[in-house]
């Protein structure tokens, strides 16, 4: 027996809703809990234990691009690179 147009549309909507529920299940389920990244509060506690303090400043865009290039290869990332550069600058 052939289905009515409205029944076909209802089935399409149910399939779409089910597909959407399944696609978000990984984001909010076990996969999110297994994420090794720390939340901001935990990261802040670790930074404070190491004596790190947030420091914001405005820099020239060309300088920022150069720092990003060098930080990509630096073992400690941007924070380690800036720490090293500032210490060398203050020592000299």
Can you characterise this structure?
With 92 residues, the protein is mainly alpha-helical. The chain has a domain at 53-92. Helices cover 72% and strands 0% of the residues. It has helices at 5-28, 30-33, 40-49, 61-73, 77-91. Helix 4 packs across helix 5 (77-91). The longest helix is centred in the N-terminal third of the chain and has 24 residues, at 5-28.
Concise account of the structure shown:
With 92 residues, the chain is mainly alpha-helical.
Q: Main sheet?
A: none
Series of secondary-structure elements, N-terminal to C-terminal: HHHHH
What is the 3D form?
A: elongated
Structural class, by secondary structure, is mainly alpha
> Which residues form runs of ≥5 with pLDDT under 50?
none
- Helical stretch tally: 5
Task: Give the % helix.
Answer: over 70%
Descriptive terms for the model:
92 residues; mainly alpha; 5 helices
Helix and strand topology:
Layout: H1 5-28, H2 30-33, H3 40-49, H4 61-73, H5 77-91
Helix pairs in contact: 4-5
